[in-house]
Amino acid sequence: MSMSKKIIPVQVISPEHEAYLRERKIYRRKILGTQILLLIGIIIIWEIAGRLGWIDPFITSQPSRIWKTLINLHREGVLYYHTGITLLETMIGFISGTLMGTIFAIILWWSDFTAEVLDPYMVVLNALPKIALGPILIVWIGNGPPAIIAMALFISLIVTILGVYSGFTQVDGDKIKLLKTFGATKLQILQKVILPASVPTIISALKINVGLSWVGVIVGEFLVSKAGLGYLIVYGGQVFKLDLVMTSVIILAAAAAIMYKAVVYLEKLFLKWR
User: Fold this and answer.
1) 8 A C-beta contact, residue 43 and residue 224
2) Distance between CA 82 and CA 175 in Å, rounded?
């Protein structure tokens, strides 16, 4: 009994293409190395400036004092507690804002009448300073994490709706006409053309929502929270512990950067799969 063997084609890379890939790898390493050296340089200059009195360490703090504050928070057991609360609230607001914004964008794409009716209201809500509605949300929802999550959701929701809906409307019209010619329903057009073509737009919305979600959560914690990084910033400012304020800001920056990198990694996975 003979068995057929499956022949797997071997991809041959030309020497020129291999050299190009090697150059690109070296170039990316140079960028990463320069970024690391720039960060180290900023830290060193900041520390030296504080020690030599070029800046007031009490106001601007300095890396060594921030490190000591970080160690103290770790020993007291409050570092991960406050960071975890802020991270949880941010993730809930981030995921909810993206999902709800995409769903609302689908509704607007589905019904041109609804889109035209809601268009001026969306423009007004997008231009409205959402932070001004913080006290109103607190009265409506209450003093606690739900109000903070609602603030993060409200800040990112409108931007997501407008961004994703704009991506839906920019999908190649010829593809839609082709499916309609074959008798495709609107749901099939959404599944086969609109959503797959709009994945880059949705990922771009994710990148924007990273920053907006953190802004919403921190603003909410400024107003009502009794725990979280926003609470530490407010508390540190009230008792003039500016080392605590700067330490909380550094933690926020690191957490936001990691979250953004996660979205970028998700984008790379999608492009590789695509």
Assistant:
1) no
2) 50
